[in-house]
Specification:
By secondary structure, the protein is an alpha/beta fold. It folds into two domains: about 1-170, HUPs (Rossmann fold, 3-Layer(aba) Sandwich), CATH 3.40.50; about 185-280, Pantoate-beta-alanine ligase, C-terminal domain (Pantoate--beta-alanine Ligase, Chain: A,domain 2), CATH 3.30.1300. The protein is built from ten helices and nine strands. The strands form two sheets. The protein has a six-stranded parallel sheet with strand order 1-4-3-2-5-6, with helices on both faces. Strands 7-8-9 form a three-stranded antiparallel sheet. α6 crosses α7. It binds adenosine monophosphate.
């Protein structure tokens, strides 16, 4: 496995891979089974796999956890090596954002809701860095997690709008046995908070139960999630949502016939902001 820090280095190795297919997984490091599941999927689908590790300052707000975001590069390299990754790109900040950097890649409409409404500069940071990584790595396929549902939708929109010549593949959310979605940020949780953090999954399950029993009212679905979350004293809700999976616009009292729903939420457990979601489809024939 090659570990490369420079853009020229990546370009040189990557051009040697052609005409083989290249799968790409972009990460901020501190890897867990969620990341590794994307790597496995990339391994299955492609002849070569490239992973990037870059904690992108542009996607963190001024009061967010950039400086204390967890890092363990040696462990990450060992995991990627065992997973059969060919090449790891580990740029430093000046490599990605030299002093005269002045371009922003921004997707407009679907970044206005959910995470975008609560983290106003976040998605411009994501799309700017992902566009750069796509240009540097030139992958055949790029893999993103359903865990970050809106991010996946925003990147798909960017790829369509800007005609990036690659395929986006979305992998399912990987969870702990008790349902908590794996996240590098789970490291921040103490024992009590870790137990409380299952409230996100439990609230999604409760709303899913209503959906499966035929409830098609956005307000009722949101209220169900709120009821479960409110019962957890360590949880502070940032938002809960029952939205159209295509537009990410909130449903009112009626979900149109034949439409699915994206249930999603951001919840503070202590200082740690966790997100989770379920994408629910309609039943056959509905
Ligand atoms: P991050 O390092 O948090 O930027 O995540 C890198 C990629 O891994 C993104 O595409 C995430 O959506 C994905 N990812 C993070 N956590 C999970 C998870 N629990 N299950 C599946 N994918 C995940």
């Amino acid at each position: 496995m090659k570990i490369i820090h420079s853009i020229e280095g990546i370009r040189a190795v990557r051009s040697g891979y052609s005409p083989q297919s290249v799968g790409f997984v972009a990460t901020m490091g501190y890897l867990h089974e969620g990341h590794l599941a994307l790597v496995k999927q990339a391994k299955r689908d492609n002849e070569r796999v490239i992973v990037s590790i870059f904690v992108n300052p542009k996607q963190f707000g001024p009061t967010e956890d950039l400086s204390r975001y967890p890092r363990d590069m040696e462990r990450d390299f060992a995991l990627l090596h065992t997973s059969g990754v060919d090449l790891v790109f580990v740029p430093d900040i000046e490599t990605i954002y030299p002093a005269d950097f002045q371009t922003v890649v921004e997707v407009s409409r679907i970044t206005q809701t959910l995470e975008g409404a609560h983290r106003p500069t976040h998605f411009a940071g994501v799309t700017t860095v992902v566009a750069k990584l796509f240009n540097i790595v030139q992958p055949t396929r790029a893999y993103f997690g359903q865990k970050d549902a809106q991010q996946a939708a925003v990147i798909q929109q960017m790829v369509r709008d800007l005609n990036f010549n690659l395929e986006i593949v979305i992998g399912p959310t990987v969870r702990e046995p008790d349902g908590l979605a794996l996240s590098s940020r789970n490291k921040y949780l103490d024992t009590e908070q870790r137990a409380a953090a299952t409230t996100l999954y439990r609230s999604l399950k409760a709303a899913e139960g209503l959906w499966e029993s035929g409830v098609r009212d956005g307000n009722v679905l949101r209220q169900k999630m709120m009821d479960v979350l409110s019962a957890e004293p360590l949880a502070r809700v940032d938002y809960v949502s029952a939205a159209d999976p295509a537009t990410l616009v909130e449903y009112g009292s009626t979900v149109p016939a034949g439409s699915g729903v994206l249930l999603s939420m951001a919840v503070f457990i202590g200082q740690t902001r966790l997100i989770d979601n379920f994408l629910l489809a309609v039943r056959e024939g509905e």
